Amino acid sequence: MSSQPVERKGSLHAGYAGVLFAAASWGSWTVFLGLAQRAHPVAAPLCSFVVMTTISLLLAPLAVRATRRRAEPRSLRDWWLIAAFGVSDALNCGLYFGALQVTSVAVAVLTHYLAPLLVALAAPVALGERRHPLTLVSVPLGFLGLTLLLAPW
User: Fold this and answer.
1) What is the C-alpha separation between 116 and 144, in angstroms, rounded?
2) Which terminus of the chain has a lower count of CB atoms within 10 Å, N or C?
3) Which pLDDT belongs to residue 152?
4) Rounded Cα distance, 71 and 48, in Å
5) CA-to-CA distance for 1 and 140, rounded, in angstroms?
6) Does an H or E element contain 47, and which?
7) E strands along 7-113, which residues?
8) How many CB atoms lie within 10 A of CB 11?
């Protein structure tokens, strides 16, 4: 049984607005990075630090608010999974910005957006989730779609 409250229509619109804002802000990092690197290259770890710090500062109040609504406290396993997610997300971000410095935007984005596909493959092993029957079909199709969309050649 879920401990989350039932969503109201207003919060549904806020959720859509949040997703739209997140997508637009993440998609704009390469614009800001390009402007910042006009004079000289900016180290990938610094770019990652700025991104992760910005995300943390903006989302920390929302995370605290959501945590207060939970009926039961998180288990130690939950905290370890959250920490692992944070570390892997920071590594993914660092590798993305590093790739932007050594290859084309298309190749960097292609490798970066493989992460959700790899998560779909690893979830049954890492989280003990049941694999959806279409996952093994969807992952190669997703990779093909990314490749055709970005045309890294």
Assistant:
1) 14
2) N
3) 67
4) 34
5) 33
6) helix 44-69
7) none
8) 12
The token pair that represents 92 in the structure block: 């993914």
Identify the residue whose tokens are 């770890």.
45
The pLDDT value recorded for residue 1 is: 46
Q: Would you say 100 and 43 are in contact if contact means Cβ atoms under 8 Å apart?
A: no
**What's the confidence (pLDDT) of residue 8?**
60
CA distance 135 to 126: 15
Structure tokens at 105: 């935007």
Structure tokens at 79: 């905290």
At 85 the pLDDT is 84
Mean pLDDT in runs of 10 for the chain (153 residues)?
55 81 75 80 84 82 78 82 86 84 82 83 85 88 84 72
Cα end-to-end distance, the chain, whole Å? 48
Nearest Cα neighbor of 93 from 55, 39, 123 is 55
**Cα 71 to Cα 3: distance, rounded to the nearest angstrom:** 6
What lies within 8 Å, CB to CB, of 58 at 6+ separation is none
Half-sphere exposure in the Cβ direction for 127 (13 Å, CA): 13
Predicted TM-score of the model (pTM): 0.61
